[in-house]
């Protein structure tokens, strides 16, 4: 039997890496992978094919439409929050025009196949913007609809692309005489800061968490760019990958939202440091807040309300703080270095 085709953009990024390893080992789908950078050798064998190319290259995307019957798209490619601030217009092009191109590809695929195409999209806590630190410290778990005034280009892009996904799913070509049957099924997760044992993040602002652990494991000193009391929600990569796959598999009629918060645990940079020291007693970490990056993290919630995901599709993280470090991150990272 022919395997269903899954297109993964941003294949070489952190989530892409985890998702391709997981789906590749499962072996029940054909992974067509796309990234501007060459793909890590460890996951290349799972991709049939891997295409090195740009999501802004509409000719390339047109070729994909013609060559493959894509049933599910995991559109992971994006420029993260810190990197995006150095060149906001380029970030806008990649994050927004790139997403629009992929939604367009999904529409064409759906029309061509006469079938629904699922579109899985990772959004982020960066979509939030809590105006003051005082308020951040008061509000507790933030719901999907609250404080949506992001401080970063990346956050604006993520929030707008959530709207684009909703538009394409519910209203696209609403005035067209030949309005096509609605065949895009957009499903989105707002991720907290993600932590992988396999890859180190680049260009994000929640990166201080994973960086602290990876630096300690390599025996390198780390200068943390946020204050000790800075609290953010985090999640381990295996949970993030599982959440994407569970949302993908959930029956449409169980989903009351197109965009869901999810989280695993929240901790401060100081708590992070203490855990790192338990496992790497020689770790050298200093705290020297970077004004702008601190401001960005201060606008993101300490915690998010993921009750809708828990109720609608039974979301539950496997890794709480204890298991996250003891059973996943530390053993895997010690093996890596
Ligand atoms: C970033 O820091 O930009 C990302 C995110 C929170 O989406 N890790």
Automatic annotation (TrEMBL):
Gene3D superfamilies: NAD(P)-binding Rossmann-like Domain. It holds the Pfam family Epimerase. Residues 6-262 form the NAD-dependent epimerase/dehydratase domain. GO terms for biological process: L-threonine catabolic process. GO terms for molecular function: L-threonine 3-dehydrogenase activity. PANTHER family: L-THREONINE 3-DEHYDROGENASE (PTHR42687), L-THREONINE 3-DEHYDROGENASE, MITOCHONDRIAL (PTHR42687:SF1). Belongs to the NAD(P)-dependent epimerase/dehydratase family. This is Epimerase. The lineage of its organism: Bacteria, Bacillati, Chloroflexota, Anaerolineae, Anaerolineales.
């Amino acid at each position: 039997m022919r395997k269903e085709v899954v297109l993964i953009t941003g294949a070489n990024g952190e989530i892409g890496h985890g998702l391709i390893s997981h789906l590749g080992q499962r072996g029940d789908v054909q992974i067509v992978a796309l990234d501007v950078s060459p793909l890590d050798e460890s996951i290349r064998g799972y991709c049939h094919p891997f295409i090195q190319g740009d999501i802004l290259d509409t000719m390339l995307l047109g070729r994909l439409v013609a060559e493959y019957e894509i049933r599910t798209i995991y559109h992971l490619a994006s420029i993260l929050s810190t990197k995006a601030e150095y060149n906001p217009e380029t970030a806008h092009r990649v994050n927004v025009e790139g997403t629009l191109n992929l939604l367009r590809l999904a529409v064409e695929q759906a029309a061509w196949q006469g079938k629904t195409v699922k579109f899985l999209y990772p959004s982020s806590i960066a979509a939030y913007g809590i105006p003051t630190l005082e308020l951040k410290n008061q509000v507790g778990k933030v719901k999907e609809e609250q404080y949506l005034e992001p401080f970063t280009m990346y956050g604006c892009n993520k929030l707008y692309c959530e709207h684009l996904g909703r538009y394409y799913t519910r209203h696209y070509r609403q005035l067209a005489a030949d309005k096509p049957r609605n065949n895009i099924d957009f499903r989105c997760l707002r991720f907290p800061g993600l932590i992988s044992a396999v890859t180190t993040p680049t260009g994000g602002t929640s990166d201080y968490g994973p960086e602290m652990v990876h630096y300690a494991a390599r025996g390198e000193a780390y200068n943390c760019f946020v204050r000790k009391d800075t609290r953010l929600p985090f999640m381990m990569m295996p949970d993030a990958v599982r959440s994407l796959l569970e949302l993908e598999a959930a029956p449409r009629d169980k989903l009351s939202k197109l965009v869901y918060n999810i989280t695993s645990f929240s901790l401060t940079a100081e708590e992070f440091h203490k855990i790192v020291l338990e496992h790497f007693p020689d770790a050298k970490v200093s705290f020297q807040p970077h004004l702008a990056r601190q401001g960005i993290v201060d606008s993101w919630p300490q915690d998010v309300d993921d009750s809708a995901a828990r109720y609608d599709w039974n979301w539950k993280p496997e890794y709480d703080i204890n298991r996250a470090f003891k059973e996943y991150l530390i053993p895997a990272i010690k093996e890596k270095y």
